[in-house]
Amino acid sequence: MELLIIFISAALVNNFVLSYFLGICPFIGVSNKTSSAISMGMATTFVLVLTAIVSWLLYNLILVPYHLDFLQIPSFILVIAALVQFVEMVIKKVSQPLYRALGIFLPLITTNCAILGLALLAAMREYDFLESVIFGVGAGAGFTLALVIMAGIREELDLADVPKPFQGAPITLIVAGILALAFMGFAGMI
Amino acid sequence: MKKQVTLLKEFTKGLWEINPTFKQILGTCPTLAVTVSVINGIAMALATTFVLVFSSLIISLVRKLIPNQVRIAAYIVIIASFVTIVDLVMKAQFQDLSKALGPFIPLIVVNCIILGRAEAFASKNGPLRSVLDALGNGVGFFIALVIMGGIREVLGSRTFLGYQVLPNGFEPWLIMILPAGAFIVFGLLMGFSNMYVERKKNLEREALIAQYRRVGREEITDDVLKEAGV
Q1: CA–CA gap between residue A20 and residue A4 (Å, rounded)
Q2: Which of the pair, A134 or A168, is modelled with greater confidence?
Q3: What pLDDT score does B27 carry?
Q4: Would you tell me how many other CB atoms lie within 10 Å of the CB of residue B35?
Q5: Where are any strands of DSSP class E within chain A?
Q6: Closest CA to B140 of B7, B10, B39, B5
Q7: Number of domains chain A contains
Q8: Contact B83 A174 (CB under 8 A)
Q9: What distance in Å separates residue B103's CA from the closest CA in chain A?
Q10: What confidence tens digit (pLDDT) does each residue in A127-155 have?
């Protein structure tokens, strides 16, 4: 039950993009087309879950026992950078089509604040191992959901008559605001 | 070789011309997240500027020692060190602010403004110019956060920096302090700043056309206008 609450909270109620403002750059940058939004969402979810696992192990097995938790920020970001690089190499070796589909999005994930934010939030809230993993899955699901909805809206928006100064990023942000309002409807769920 | 820009220009271009928030659309996450009140915005901007200036300085000093292949990793370690300093100082000295900003102080590491300036400027220029560029961008970020924070705090909780500025009869707009308000205010600001730039450009263009007419220049083609830089 506890795990379900963590999942729903990360995916819907406290959606990473629309209520924690984590991962706004890809949210605005890659939400032009539904297909690339899905690819980006999947790649990010994958890295989020891996980060949740690795950063939990790093924090609870190395940093805390040896009182090195002041090194949290540099060690987390290095682990994430290494992880993204590693995932990129593995995917390239294992599945060429998947690599081509995700290719350009993978390096971008390192600087996605959702990833580092997840590691920091999980450490701050002192989640146990399983909770961290579920938190990662939920955050990934929420990120993908927001990205895909946004991409769907933006495909329609291309046909709309938006005043010129507002085209592109400004109207995307305003639509995101309305979307955030809609997501507030989930607030009563937990 | 391009004309060397003056040192002053190196600083002032960050304020508006390449304002990191409104023009480069970098660092949007903290811009949206911490601007519930002006004081949070100021704290965030100061912390970011500190990291930006010092990491630009260090990166520009060691830029010739770092092999090209591992430069991003090296930059991130330098940035992360300064962020750790800020984080620990905030936790020790300003506990309330540190709590209000939550994970966004450590998240300065992945603020694209810092890595962006490191990659685009500090890795190619000397220390003095890099520091000026970093300061300019930091102040530009500061301005953006204060504007955002000001609008949201005044309309959302009737106060500015904690002092009440709107009368009690004014019903606070709750949406302004919710996430949705952040997105909408930011979108509108960006749109209006585009509109202002567009309008200014058109005025300059018309002034030039009028001037050409006066001196009796017949054809005013797009090429002529482009040459004059409008």
Answers
A1: 19
A2: A134
A3: 81
A4: 29
A5: none
A6: B10
A7: 1
A8: no
A9: 7
A10: 999 999 999 999 999 999 999 999 999 98
Q: How many CB pairs lie under 8 A apart between chains A and B?
A: 119
Interface residue B191 vs chain A (CB under 8 A): yes
So what's the pLDDT on residue B218?
59
Contacts of A28 in chain B (CB under 8 A): 25, 28
Residue B159, chain A, CB below 8 Å: the answer is no
- Token pair, residue B171, equals 């019903």
Q: Which chain A positions have a beta carbon within 8 Å of B88's beta carbon?
A: 70
Give one DSSP letter per residue of B72-125, joined into a string: HHHHHHHHHHHHHHHHHHHHHH-HHHHHHHGGGTGGGGG-HHHHHHIIIIITTS
ipTM over 0.90: no
Average pLDDT of the residues of chain B: 85
pLDDT tens sequence across B142-161: 999 999 999 999 998 888 88
pLDDT value of residue B229? 59
In a domain, A190, yes or no: no
Q: pLDDT digits over A8-20, tens only?
A: 888 888 888 888 8
Q: Identify the domain containing residue A134 by its residue range.
A: 2-185
Contact B32 A24 (CB under 8 A): yes
Give B134 to chain A, closest Cα distance, Å: 19
Q: Pick from B32, B77, B192: which is nearest to A74 by CB?
A: B77
The minimum CA-CA distance between A109 and chain B, rounded to whole Å, is 10
Q: Which helix (H) or strand (E) segment is B160 a member of?
A: strand B159-160
